[in-house]
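Team,

Forwarding the record for the chain on the shared tracking sheet. I've put the sequence and predicted structure together so nobody has to dig through attachments.
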Amino acid sequence: MIREAQDPVSTALEAADDGTNLKEDVWSRPGCGGGISRILQDGAIWEKAGVNVSVVYSIMPPEAYGATKAAASSDQKPGPFPFFTAGISSMLPEHLGSGGLAGGLT
């Protein structure tokens, strides 16, 4: 689901920047997950723009798990503590003075 969210954002960026294509970099860490970075560089509006997806999973160290609890309780699990997280992020700094989406603020 999170990877599907990246496609329409990428398509909209390309269209808004006069059809400039994003370059894709797929990365992975064996046993821990991976992600897809899509970067647009030196476009008509954006100096550099990115739409990134990460899906990460592993085993949380007991110290880190303990830090997520307000106080020790009788229902605290002895471990191991598997975790999963997924996210999408973007960075869209436009060229200063480009007259782009922010109206060319300098």
